[in-house]
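ok here's the first one, seq then C-alpha cells
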Amino acid sequence: MFSRITAAESASIQQAADHGADWRLAQGEALKLPIGPGPRELKVLEGRVWLTRDGRMNRPALDVWLEAGDSLAVPSGAELVLEAWPQARFQLLVPPLACPELKRRPVSAGSRSHGLVIA
C-alpha cells in the first residue's frame, strides 16, 4: 500500500534527487573516473570542465573543454580525468540505449501520482 505524497513532499523529493545525481568539482580539484559497464553521457550543468579520456588501440585519446549545457558520449571502459575551471557541476547519465534489457510497458492513468510511476 502506498501513502499519498503531498506537493511539498514531492518538491523535496525532486530537490533531493537532483542534488544526489550531481557531481561537483571545486576550483583546482581533479577527478579520475572509470566508466562502465556500459556507455554513459557526461552532461555539464554549471561551470567548465577540462576532460581527458584515455586512448586505446581502436580509439585515440581525447582532450576537450566542456561548458554548461555541453554533453559528451563516453564509451564503456573509458577512463576520464576531469578538472573544473574554475568550478563545475555535472551529471554522469546512463542513456536508454545502454539498457537493452529495459522493458517498456504502458502506464495506466491510475498508476501515476505526482509524476511518479508506481509499478
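and now the second one, same deal
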Amino acid sequence: MASRNEFDKTIAETEGAYMKILESSQTLLNVLKRESQSLREKSSAKPSATPMF
C-alpha cells in the first residue's frame, strides 16, 4: 500500500509540473504573438527606403 501512495504522489507532482510548463508555454506563446504583431505594425508604418546608388 505504501508503494501505491508513493506512486500516486509522484503522479500528482508530475501533473502539477506539467501544468506549470503548459501555463508557461501558453504565456510565452501569447507574448510572442503580441511582439510579432507589434513588429509587423512598426515595419508597415515606416516608409520604405529606396537604396541610393
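notes on #2: The chain is about 85% helix and 0% strand. Helices lie at 2-45.
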